[in-house]
Design brief:
Elements: E1 2-5, E2 9-12, H1 18-34, H2 37-54, E3 56-57, E4 68-70, H3 77-83
Parallel strand pairs: 1-4
Antiparallel strand pairs: 1-2, 2-3
């Protein structure tokens, strides 16, 4: 799956990584529901770091369609809330 982190670029992620990423996505959803800004910020950073770690970066000039778009690292709780589907940021979450 091709994933774009807004403001950074794209990475290719193997489907096998989604279970691990969904755990962080579930935490992020819970923190958003509880209005826990500091925990939300930590988990968003951890989620994006994990995507960077597990994904293979695509060249800047690659024109691949993104199947998933993630918020930038400095996104607010409200901005991320607007991006969420019923499943969270990653398909198959809660």
């Amino acid at each position: 799956m091709i994933v774009r982190i807004m403001g950074e670029g794209q990475v290719k992620l193997a489907d096998s990584h989604f279970a691990e990423l969904n755990k962080l996505d579930d935490e992020l959803l819970e923190e958003m529901e509880n209005g826990d800004g500091p925990a939300f910020r930590r988990t968003l950073h951890a989620l994006l770091d994990k995507v960077r770690e597990l994904g293979d970066p695509l060249p800047d000039d690659a024109l691949e369609p993104s199947e998933l778009i993630l918020p930038p690292v400095d996104a607010t709780l409200e901005e991320v809330r607007e991006m969420l589907s019923d499943d969270g940021l990653f398909p198959g979450s809660s």
